[in-house]
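ok, trying the design again with the full structure, not the truncated one.
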């Protein structure tokens, strides 16, 4: 168990859920973050930022979305409710495309040309609009506060990042990275690993 999870467990045992140690009521975002930390995914054991060389290779629009995701120049960001590690190390891949039909065609092509991408869902989960769906879901959570405009830019970054870092030339490196994260979760939190494995949600 990580130090953060130990602290959260102690808070639960002391009956402080919903309140800070100073006795102040916690915000909805604070409660969401506690929930995220107490229920880790393999993603959470990975880095909370991209390396400088990778980020430098991304177009300006993707870089802007990345900065918004991490909270650079924005009051509300993804780290309001969980660390940036969760989306950056996610197995989700949404192909690039101008609409759903084009993305569906891209998935079909990937299945034909790279069937290995679809053998282990803990490494890659490739769907036409998976990031669009999840960003909307996260934006609807209590305390999120990300604007529609910023949410769209974050979504566009996640689509670009997945298509350029997780598949294609980077596929083998990504596979090794994800397998390491899954192994780390299993070693450090076997109970949570079993829960996610049972639900096929690693």
């Amino acid at each position: 168990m990580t130090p953060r999870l130990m602290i959260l467990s102690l808070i639960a045992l002391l009956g402080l859920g919903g309140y800070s140690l100073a006795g102040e009521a916690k915000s909805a975002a604070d409660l969401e973050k506690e929930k995220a930390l107490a229920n880790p995914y393999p993603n959470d054991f990975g880095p909370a930022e991209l390396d400088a060389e990778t980020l430098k290779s991304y177009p300006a629009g993707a870089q802007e979305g990345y900065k918004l995701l991490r909270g650079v120049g924005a009051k509300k960001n993804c780290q309001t409710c969980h660390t940036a590690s969760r989306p950056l190390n996610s197995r989700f891949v949404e192909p690039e495309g101008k609409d759903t039909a084009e993305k569906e065609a891209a998935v079909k092509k990937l299945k034909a040309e790279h069937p290995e991408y679809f053998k282990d869902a803990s490494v890659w989960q490739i769907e036409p609009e998976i990031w669009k769906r999840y960003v909307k879901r996260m934006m609807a959570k209590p305390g999120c506060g990300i604007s529609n405009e910023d949410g769209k830019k974050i979504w566009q970054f996640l689509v670009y990042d997945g298509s350029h870092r997780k598949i294609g030339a980077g596929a083998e490196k990504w596979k090794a990275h994800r397998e390491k994260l899954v192994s780390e979760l299993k070693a450090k939190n076997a109970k949570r690993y079993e829960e996610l494995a049972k639900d096929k949600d690693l």
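Keeping the full-length input from now on. The chain has one domain: 40-198.
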